[in-house]
Amino acid sequence: MILTGHNTMKEKIKKSILKVKPYVPGKPIEEVKRDSGLKRVIKLASNENPYPPSPKVIKAIEKAATTVNRYPYSDCYYLKDALVKKLGVSSSQLIFGNGSDEIILLAVRAFVQPGDEVVLAKPSFLMYSIDAQIEGAVIKSIPVKNYQYDLQAMKRAVTPITKLIFLGNPDNPVGTYFTDQDVRSFLKGLRKDILILLDEAYFEYVEQKDYVDSIKLLSEYPNIIVTRTFSKMYGLAGLRVGYGISSAEVIDFLNRIRDPFNVNSVAQAAALACLKDKSYYRQIATDIRQQRAYIYQELTKMGLQYVRTYTNFIIVHIAEADKYVEFLLHRGVIVRSMSAWGLQNCFRLSIGTQAENRQFINILKRALKDIKEHKL
Ligand SMILES: Cc1ncc(COP(=O)(O)O)c(C=O)c1O
């Protein structure tokens, strides 16, 4: 047997990977229960839907479970057909992924070469920079202004070697949105060989009339890819299904590098059933809106500042935020530290059910008192 030196693999690994900081997800409920011994733990950390899937979706999952001895449809045939009808696009314009994460990954893998520039907002969804770093891109992070994308500064950052621009609308963790007019002025005069990834993971939560009509935009800009997901509003985060919409040309490129069975059959059946159960999800949207208003009201009473968002999560401003993240965690409420995004004075909270939000507010009140009084 040949014994290898300690550094050998480090020397062999793609250099770009050495710089990558692994994505740290929100802690799972079971892990916190195991570590803390607490019986009741709630998770408000990963922008999930706090409600279970609709009874019709559960039925579809049960039915699909009986045929998992077969491989799934490679092209998500029925799900694709339903979205073709719903969105009014052609089937060649759609691609499905193991979460929209996979569509982002495929787009970066297909287009970005070492040394290409990628423009994104700071802070923004962490997978944008992780995927781009892996491909050896030069990342240009443009700070948000007042928690809004600074689209003018992002446009100024474009150079002849810019390959890809990430636009999260609304983005995570900021939660704000830009309008149709904003994105149209941004695109005007921009080279049409730059891929624009318009991430709409949370678009179902936005009710504003001036929100981007991305399907219309796609008919004018074949270099845009819109990504969406069943993880957020439709509550299928655990099944992993998302999709991308673009020109047939871009979708064809992504399909060449996609694993043939990347979306499992249970996920396909569940997503299709979600699309058919509109009233259930409409009710959830109303509920999240009401709960958001409740949380805003309670934070204001506590004298805390927050970012007004158009999503199911909120950034809360508080000095030494990680102390509060820990305090809440030890009492069974998981919220997200923003230190991975470089934000020390805030944490992110996903909107839960009424009972969960009340529990969060009560514990936060205690935290404010204890941390201030006892200088914890
Ligand atoms: C802005 C944004 N885009 C994409 C995703 C990926 O979601 P999924 O892979 O579950 O579709 C997330 C998940 O948190 C997100 O916040």
Describe the structure.
It is a single chain. With 376 residues, this protein is α/β, with parallel strands linked by helices. It contains 15 helices and 13 strands. Strand 5, helix 9 and strand 6 form a beta-alpha-beta unit. Helix 4 packs antiparallel against helix 12, helix 6 runs parallel beside helix 7 and helix 14 packs across helix 15. The longest helix is centred in the C-terminal third of the chain and has 24 residues. It binds pyridoxal-5'-phosphate (PLP). The site of pyridoxal-5'-phosphate has 14 residues, from helix 6.
Order of helices and strands: HHHEHHEHEHEHEHEHEEHHHEEHEEEH
CATH class of the largest domain: Alpha Beta
Proportion in helices: 40-55%
Percent range for β-strand residues:
5-15%
Name the shape in a single word: globular
Indicate the CATH topology of the largest domain: Aspartate Aminotransferase, domain 2
Within CATH, the superfamily of the largest domain carries the name Type I PLP-dependent aspartate aminotransferase-like (Major domain)
Distance between the termini: 54 Å
CATH architecture of the largest domain: 3-Layer(aba) Sandwich
DSSP, total strands: 13
**Overall pLDDT score:** 95
List of distinct ligands in this structure = pyridoxal-5'-phosphate
Low-confidence stretches: none
* Main sheet makeup: 7 strands, mixed
The helix/strand class is alpha/beta
